[in-house]
């Protein structure tokens, strides 16, 4: 008898960040993870994580909606179904529940973790095999203070932790943001690459002004300068400037990736398991990008260790990652709920060894940080 899904439990876990993390639309002092524990009739437990940024400030799912929608709508679609056919279960969720990509990603991750444990394979092996065991990881400077950001960058360089930096801008006047970014780039010089993420804060005219100045300052990549749905504007920016554009919020899944590429976009796509409903959907977007000659970047929704590990298993299967990854989420958190942290060294992180995700929960930490009324 093949295994079936028995129970699905969800927990909201609130973890403080090491410092305030300032984005154009919110400042985070804490990250909330939605942890999924999926138990199967063969005794195997699959773990998953669904995480967003700043409640409802990043997208239409909040941690509370992710939990509630899994409990009420998605879990009943999976319970009692055969555990092993992940393609069938993805299709079943997509047929009966619209949207909710982060909730679906948490469940798909738990399915992959369980299947890997069942077969004695890592998630990367289930996805066709890892092409790398160590992935480059950048760090986001987002304290909101230029001097503190420069000190933080030098510390990371000296520790050989990170040598690529992304700056979160868009909350201030464009001239102030440009001054902040240019000062950091000037301080770091050739020791580090500096990129910016505007998180949709500019209109196109502001973006033209801002990007011209950032290009002159030596910035290497401009992430999501204008609103996600302004595809034509993003295409125009990518054709106007030499500095490449990175589409993040604009490309949720393969269909967005196809539409933007067909519209004439060049540059790079940020892959995130949270945007695409899980590792499989994120890899579908990656394959569309590859076919269109668009560069790849392993993106984060500032997940904890489980979500970061799931992403790493997916990114490791890719041939090329022109812009590396930003899978630093666990390093932004003061504490963790796993028994063994990921190994960050030499400007990157090691792909965890399987089976499954290769991650074990620390039950005491989980019960400490779990929201008791959630
Ligand atoms: C985003 O939009 O890219 C990634 C790094 C970070 O600091 O925030 C995220 C979200
Ligand atoms: Mg982004």
Keywords:
binds magnesium ion, TIM Barrel, 39% helix, manganese, alpha/beta, 374 residues, binds [(2S)-5-oxo-2,5-dihydrofuran-2-yl]acetic acid, Enolase-like, domain 1, seven-stranded parallel β-sheet
Q: How would you summarize this macromolecular structure in one to three sentences?
A:
One of its GO terms (molecular function) is manganese ion binding. Helix content is 39%, strand content 20%. The chain contains 13 helices and 13 strands.
What does this structure look like?
It comes from Modicisalibacter xianhensis. Belongs to the mandelate racemase/muconate lactonizing enzyme family. The protein contains 13 helices and 13 strands. The chain is α/β, with parallel strands linked by helices. A hairpin with a 2-residue loop joins β12 and β13. α2 packs antiparallel against α3. It starts with a strand and ends in a 5-residue tail after the last helix. Magnesium ion binds next to loops. The site of magnesium ion (MG) has 6 residues, from loops.
């Amino acid at each position: 008898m093949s295994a079936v899904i028995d129970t699905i439990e969800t927990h909201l876990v609130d973890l403080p960040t090491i410092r305030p993390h300032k984005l154009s639309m919110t400042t985070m002092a804490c990250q909330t993870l939605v942890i999924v524990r999926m138990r199967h009739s063969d005794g195997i437990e699959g773990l998953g994580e669904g995480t967003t940024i700043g409640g409802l400030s990043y997208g239409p799912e909040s941690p509370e909606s992710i939990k509630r929608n899994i409990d009420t709508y998605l879990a009943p679609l999976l319970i009692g179904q055969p555990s092993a056919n992940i393609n069938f279960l993805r299709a079943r969720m997509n047929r009966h529940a619209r949207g909710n990509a982060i909730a679906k990603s948490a469940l798909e991750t738990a399915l992959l973790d369980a299947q890997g444990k069942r077969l004695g394979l890592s998630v990367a092996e289930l996805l066709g095999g890892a092409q790398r065991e160590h992935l480059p990881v950048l760090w986001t400077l987002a304290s909101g203070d230029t001097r503190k950001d420069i000190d933080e960058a030098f510390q990371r360089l000296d520790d050989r932790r990170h040598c690529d930096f992304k700056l979160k801008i868009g909350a201030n006047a464009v001239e102030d943001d440009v001054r902040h970014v240019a000062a950091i780039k000037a301080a770091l010089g050739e020791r580090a690459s500096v990129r910016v993420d505007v998180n949709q804060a500019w209109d196109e005219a502001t973006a033209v002004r801002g990007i011209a100045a950032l290009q002159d300052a030596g910035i290497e990549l401009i992430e999501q300068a204008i609103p996600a749905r302004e595809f034509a504007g993003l295409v125009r920016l990518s054709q106007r400037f030499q500095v490449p554009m990175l589409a993040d919020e604009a490309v949720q899944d393969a269909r967005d990736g196809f539409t933007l590429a067909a519209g004439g976009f060049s540059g790079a796509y940020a892959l995130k398991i949270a945007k695409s409903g899980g590792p499989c959907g994120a890899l579908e977007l990656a394959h569309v990008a590859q076919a269109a000659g668009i560069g790849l970047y392993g993106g984060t929704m500032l997940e904890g260790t489980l979500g970061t590990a799931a992403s790493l298993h997916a990114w490791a299967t890719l041939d090329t990652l022109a812009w590396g990854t930003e899978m630093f989420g666990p390093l932004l958190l003061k504490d963790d709920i796993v028994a063994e942290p990921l190994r960050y060294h030499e400007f990157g992180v090691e792909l965890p060894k399987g089976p499954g995700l290769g991650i074990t929960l620390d039950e005491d930490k989980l019960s400490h940080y779990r929201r008791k009324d959630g």
